[in-house]
Amino acid sequence: MKKKNPLFELFMRFFMVVVIYTVRVYLLVWHRPKVTFVGNTVKSPRLKTPSVIIANHTSMWDPLMMLAIFFHHKSIVVAKDQIEDPHFSWALTRVKCVIPCDRFNMDTEWALLAKRELEKGNNVIIFPEGKCRYDGLLNEFKTGFAFLARSTGAPVLSVGIDGIYKRGHRTQIVVGEPEKIERVKGIPSSKHLAERSEYFRQKVWGLKQQALGKSEVAPLPVASETPEEVEA
């Protein structure tokens, strides 16, 4: 393995700090996100309690926007294959807040890393769908976030993003009331985790509809009855 140059790594870390702040300013100024808090507990992105933050995934801009909004004391779960992609690895491997997760194989290491982040007082941002969906529906929520919240006692903060990033549009983000998943002894059953995941999937769906400005929320089929997205 090629030995890393300490000076180069120091420069790259400084460069990444500049990039992070530049991207945040760009998102906040150009897309002018409007964050609406619908609950009574959370009224600011500066969360008082380390939380598992989940959101729908409609655009590749979503992770950057979530990091821009929940900027302080944060970490984010990112697909391991994206981190290893040479187009992104130069940046993602040098950002301390990134937690790699293998979305194609059984992976428990990410949960241990996320647990440590919560114990340090950092929030953990997760997109439970695991990939973007562009047809307006939501994919099935993977149960990892529910397992993490249940095993640590951290509250789950649901977020709905309109997913619209274009000139002249102000991106809308709706933040719900944090909820805890009851923490009990023993290993949670897959059925229980699936039920809790579907509950939060429906909650995020409702928040997304609010972000889109819809007064009436159209029903979202349960994950098992939601059709696969048809690729264009």
Summarize the structure.
This protein is of the alpha/beta class and 232 residues long.
Feature tags:
14% strand; single chain; 232 residues; seven-stranded mixed β-sheet; 7 helices; alpha/beta
Contiguous helical run count: 7
What form results from the Cα inertia axes? globular
> Which strand-content bin applies to the residues?
5-15%
Give the neighbour order of strands across the main sheet. Answer: 1-7-6-2-5-3-4
Largest sheet geometry: 7 strands, mixed
Subunit organisation of the chains: single chain
Number of strands: 7
Explain what you see:
The chain has 232 residues and is an alpha/beta fold. The chain contains seven helices and seven strands, in the order αββαβααβαβαββα. Strands 1-7-6-2-5-3-4 form a seven-stranded mixed beta sheet, sandwiched between helices. Helix 1 packs across helix 2 and helix 6 packs across helix 7. The longest helix has 25 residues, at 6-30. The model has no long low-confidence stretch (mean pLDDT 93).
SSE layout:
Blueprint lengths: L5 H25 L3 E4 L14 E4 L6 H8 L4 E6 H5 L1 H7 L5 E4 L7 H11 L3 E4 L17 H9 L3 E6 L10 E4 L14 H22 L21
